[in-house]
Design a protein that fits this description.
There is one protein chain. This protein is mainly α. It is 69% helix and 0% strand. It contains two helices and no strands. Helix 1 runs antiparallel to helix 2. The radius of gyration is 15 Å and the shape is elongated.
Length: 71
């Protein structure tokens, strides 16, 4: 099937997936440097961020074949 560039739902979903990837990347970059968190808390935050990013990539791959510029 074809997706129209004017499809607002499709655009919004792509934007949301991209935001999840961006937020996960920010957590992955910042978590190791948080000084007032235990290693367990850092690992929990990192694991959650890696999972969310992976899920977003999988959704993008299934829907559109990936995220341009990422893979």
């Amino acid at each position: 099937y074809r997706v129209s560039p004017d499809n607002v739902e499709n655009r919004d979903l792509f934007t949301t997936i991209y935001q999840v990837v961006n937020q996960a990347n920010n957590i992955i970059a910042a978590a190791p440097g948080v000084s007032d968190a235990t290693e367990a808390q850092k690992n929990n935050a990192l694991g959650t961020a890696y999972f969310a990013r992976g899920l977003a990539f999988m959704d993008a791959a299934l829907l559109w074949g990936g995220i341009p510029g990422v893979y």
